[in-house]
Write a structure and sequence with these properties.
The protein is of the alpha+beta class. It is 39% helix and 19% strand.
Length: 106
Amino acid sequence: MGGAFRLLAMVTLVAGLPAAGAVATAPETGQAAVLFNPALTDAELAAAAASSGAAIVRFGALPGSLVVDLPDARAKERLRAAGAWMIADPVVLGGCSASQDGDLGR
């Protein structure tokens, strides 16, 4: 049983490292990936982003996710107050930055 637990712990750690790195390197300004409660509607996500002063670059592929442009260093604090679960570097998460044509559609 100890070997299986160690293997599971190792897989969990390795799988979580990119996300941890993305959160650790989240920018103070510029583009950031933001994860909210996946049950929120697009309108609720847009309202949360607007209340923080962040501009939506695009909606993410996952429910509750957005890529936003952070206008200042306090925007992350305001996003958390608006309900953000995670704010991360979009490039570290796999390149989910702005599309070439600036499309806000999914």
